[in-house]
Design goal:
- The chain is mainly beta.
- It has a single domain (27-121), classed as Sandwich (Immunoglobulin-like).
- It contains one helix and eight strands, in the order H-E-E-E-E-E-E-E-E.
- The protein has one helix spanning 3-20, and strands at residues 31-35, 40-42, 48-53, 63-68, 75-83, 86-91, 97-106, 112-121.
- The strands form two sheets. The protein has a four-stranded antiparallel β-sheet with strand order 1-3-6-5, with no helix packed on it. A four-stranded mixed β-sheet has the order 2-8-7-4, with no helix packed on it.
- The relative contact order is 0.23.
- Mean pLDDT is 86; it is low at 8-25.
């Protein structure tokens, strides 16, 4: 067997083995659950934003920033890791309006992902 063929065959067998092992070899961390939920309308100011990712993340290389519609940062304090796949950041008291949650996560598989979630605080009925 030629060495090129051996290398190609080994690589193919490795890929097949990884694909049937049930392990996500090339998975990335994306939000699975957020509080408030993405697109949610809430009646009261949340005390924090919490994001649970699809896999474990590295706190030191991840971030969450919450902003008003005009770009003012309303998250405060240090990002906290509640479990290996969940991060949270405290918020100032928020008023009625639209908010964006900009997140970036480094998963334990060393892939960086980022995105934006949104929520709205609506006026309470009187």
């Amino acid at each position: 067997m030629s060495s090129k063929f051996s290398i190609a065959l080994s690589a193919a067998l490795l890929l097949i083995g990884l694909s049937i092992s049930g392990k996500q070899a090339w998975a990335h961390a994306y939000p699975a659950v957020s509080v408030p939920n993405n697109g949610a309308t809430v009646r009261e100011s949340p005390r924090e934003v919490r994001i649970q990712f699809t896999e474990a993340v590295e706190l030191a290389f991840s971030q969450i920033t919450v902003k008003t519609a005009n770009g003012e940062i309303v998250s405060q304090g240090k990002l906290r890791q509640l479990s290996n796949d969940t991060l949270a950041i405290d918020l100032k008291t928020l008023s009625v309006g639209n908010y964006s949650v900009e997140w970036q996560a480094l998963s334990v598989d060393t892939h960086v992902t980022d995105g934006v979630l949104r929520f709205t605080i609506a006026a309470t009925a009187k």
